[in-house]
Design goal:
about 240 residues; EC 2.1.1.-; single chain; seven-stranded mixed beta sheet
Length: about 240
């Protein structure tokens, strides 16, 4: 089975939206790790006078993490799945958070334009057809010296990392997905990780896309060696405004 892409992937997420929060809540550390990755952006002054992009926001878990790290920032949250966005919008949000339905590759068509002081992208990059084009476009949305944090399933490169991920998927993720009626999506989840970059390879991909100061940071728990935060900055001397 080929990996799901574009409209097929959005449709799969639409179908899974009703049970998605329940399944992710059963993943130990899921929300805490998102908050940790958002904090790794190092945004000053609780986000005052900053404009942030949450790219691939899903049902809003990454948005909530970004809001916790920068409660005073303007946050624009974007996702290609209408079903996931409906779930996100139904939650309580302050006035500085807005949601936009758009594929990450076609933001301008939906009226989402830069500049942004920082971008947070959780569980997104491995799911797009052309990660290099996406990263280059995102770099262009950032102010000079603007920050990006990519929170992603990117295996550490050891055989044990791949083995743990596959064991968790076969023992927990795939059965849960089938039970929820979304087996195709969760098979995609498993395969999209094992067929994507290792964390070191993804760091090199970020550098090739023109980002500076690329750092690969691990996360604790069973996700060690499986999930990483990759942080970097856009070229230029200006940091996110204080």
């Amino acid at each position: 089975m080929p990996l799901l892409r574009d409209d097929a992937l959005s449709a799969a997420f639409d179908h899974a939206a009703a049970t998605y929060d329940r399944l992710t809540a059963a993943n130990p550390g899921y929300h805490a790790h998102l908050r940790r990755s958002a904090r790794r952006l190092g945004l000053p002054a609780a986000g005052r006078r900053l404009r942030l992009l949450d790219l691939g926001c899903g049902t809003g878990a990454s948005t909530a993490a970004l809001l916790a790290a920068a409660p005073h920032a303007e946050i624009v949250a974007v996702d290609a799945s209408a079903g996931m966005l409906d779930r996100a919008r139904a939650k309580a949000w302050p006035h500085n958070v807005s949601f936009v339905h758009a594929p990450a590759e076609r933001l301008e068509e939906a009226g989402v334009t830069g500049p942004f002081d920082a971008v947070f992208a959780a569980y997104l990059v491995r799911n797009v057809a052309d990660p290099d084009a996406l990263l280059t476009a995102v770099r262009g949305l950032l102010v000079p010296g603007g920050r990006i944090a990519v929170h992603e399933y990117a295996l550490g490169g050891r055989a044990v990392d791949r083995a743990v991920w596959t064991a968790v998927c076969r023992g927990v993720v795939l059965p849960a997905g089938r039970l929820a009626g979304d087996g195709e999506l969760y098979r995609h989840l498993w395969r999209s990780v094992v067929e994507f970059d290792t964390a070191p390879d993804f760091g090199r991909r970020m550098a090739r896309a023109g980002f500076d100061r690329v750092r690969i940071l691990p996360l604790p728990g069973w996700q060690t060696g499986i999930t990483h935060t990759v942080v970097a900055t856009a070229p230029g001397t200006r940091e996110a405004a204080a």
